[in-house]
Amino acid sequence: MLANLEELYIGGNRLSGVVLTYISNASRLAHLDLTSNQFTGVIPRSLGDLRLLKILCLANNSFSYESHYGELSFLNSLSNCKYLNVLWLNEIPFNGFLPVSVGNLSSNLESFYMNDCGLYGQIPSSIGNLSNLADLNLSQNALEGTIPPTFGGLLKLQEMDLGYNKFQGPCPSELCYLLNLGRLSLSSNLLSVVLYPLKNLKALMIVDLSVNNYFGDIPIAIGALQSLQALSLKHNRLQGFIPESMKNMLELQYLDLSFNNLTGEIPSSLQVLQNLVYFNVSFNRFRGPIPHGGPFANFTKLSFLSNEALCDAPWLQPCQTFEQSSRKKTVLFVLLALLDP
């Protein structure tokens, strides 16, 4: 009976126990979905004997693994599954590190999830061998080191989430080759200097680079990302002005630049962003009038908290009054300085 089985879907139940090694007797099995159960024990290496396997979903279980100093060596056996297209191992408490052999997984692999698995160590550079990968999620782990330059070889990548790890240093310039990338999340790491390589990624729709160590200016070239719908740069160390070129990002719906060191005025040209429904520049050093038109008519003071000298909004004093008050204070300080013996 097992020999004729081609698809097995038993996800979303309360099944427990171990997955027996004789699952490999189902030699024609192409789809195996055990997600969201209560399975325990070792993931059997015999899964690698399922040579026709295309989809393997084991996510959200309590599997363990046979390890050699923490290496997730069971992935070695899956390299025999040459047709494997989807591999979802997320939300399993592996608490180990990715072996170099992860790069030997099927060249047909398009979707690879190992988020929230307790992974540590570095991403092997061999991951760049997975040339058909379109969707990669390694978020919510404890991965560290730098992001390998070999990511630049994942030319078909459409979604990449490496958020909530411990990556540090600059992102590789090779990211600029990922021309099909539509969603990028590197949030909550220790990364720096990443904005410039993004200017070529015209397919980007969602970018989350929040809670990192990015510094310097927001590049003028960011205005070329005209398909972008959501951009979060909050909690970084960005300086300088909001570039006028951002007025060209007409699809933008969400923009968060809060908790940086940005200065100057909020460009009135951003009033043309009619799709913008969320805007936050709180905790910066902006000065001058808050725009009134377009989407700005709907934003409240919660979008502008704790800046240096914003004015001309219902909850703030008019700019003229502020400027006059500022000049008076300057004159007073000068007089006091002159009178000081």
Entry keywords:
Leucine-rich repeat, LRR (right-handed beta-alpha superhelix); mainly beta; 4-stranded parallel sheet; 2 helices; 341 residues; 12-stranded parallel sheet; 23 strands
Describe the structure.
The chain is mainly beta and 341 residues long. The protein has a domain at 1-115: Leucine-rich repeat, LRR (right-handed beta-alpha superhelix), CATH 3.80.10. Helices cover 8% and strands 20% of the residues. The chain contains two helices and 23 strands. The strands form five sheets. The protein has a twelve-stranded parallel β-sheet with strand order 1-3-5-6-7-9-11-13-15-17-19-21, with no helix packed on it. Helix 1 (74-78) links the parallel strand 5 and strand 6. The longest helix has 21 residues, at 319-339. Mean pLDDT is 91; it is low at 326-336.
Provide a short characterization of the protein structure:
With 341 residues, the chain is mainly beta. The chain is built from 2 helices and 23 strands.
Q: Measured on Cα atoms, how large is the radius of gyration?
A: 26 Å
Report the end-to-end length measured between terminal Cα atoms: 102 Å
Widest sheet, order of strands: 1-3-5-6-7-9-11-13-15-17-19-21
Structural class by secondary-structure content: mainly beta
Which segments are poorly predicted (pLDDT under 50) over 5 or more consecutive residues?
A: 326-336
- The CATH C-level name of the domain at 1-115 is Alpha Beta
Q: Kindly report the name of the CATH homologous superfamily of the domain at 1-115.
A: Ribonuclease Inhibitor
Can you tell me the CATH topology of the domain at 1-115?
Leucine-rich repeat, LRR (right-handed beta-alpha superhelix)
Helix content: under 10%
Overall morphology: elongated
